[in-house]
Fold this protein.
Amino acid sequence: MGRSRTAQAEVEPSNGYGSLEELMALALQHEHGAMVQYANHAGLLSHWINPIFATSIQDIIADEVEHAVTLVNALAVRDVTPTLAVWPPRSGNQARELILMDIAAEQGAVELYSEMLEYDLDPALRTAITRIRDAEILHRNIFNDLLEKV
Ligand SMILES: [Fe+2]
Ligand SMILES: [Fe+2]
């Protein structure tokens, strides 16, 4: 609240992403895109291979929803209208191709949240973002395990 935008800019790392709010909005779009992409992939993989694939992926989707809720709340606290934009989801016609897209999405998320942790965050937000970043690492590992089963 107290610090001006200019003063805040001086302590932010020059990572090319812009302000923390811009980075949070980008992450929110990313979460929206992940939900749509993973729902599509869960359905296709359960049709092509085995319904068990949908179970793991639906658990991941539930986590992405929780991440989006955290980001919407953090943006609202900062008086920023949370975006409804959706990072373009991707699909394909081969099981391996889909899971590689999902691993790439998780890797992107890990990088986004790691960038966010370079900012001067209040302790509560730092704890929340660290939890999200760790969840994305776990998701990436789960998709890596799924890749070995197709
Ligand atoms: Fe997420
Ligand atoms: Fe994730």
Summary: Residues 31, 34, 64, 67, 109, 132, 136 surround fe (ii) ion (ligand 1) (CB under 6 Å). The two ends are 50 Å apart (CA to CA). The CA atoms of residues 13 and 119 lie 7 Å apart.
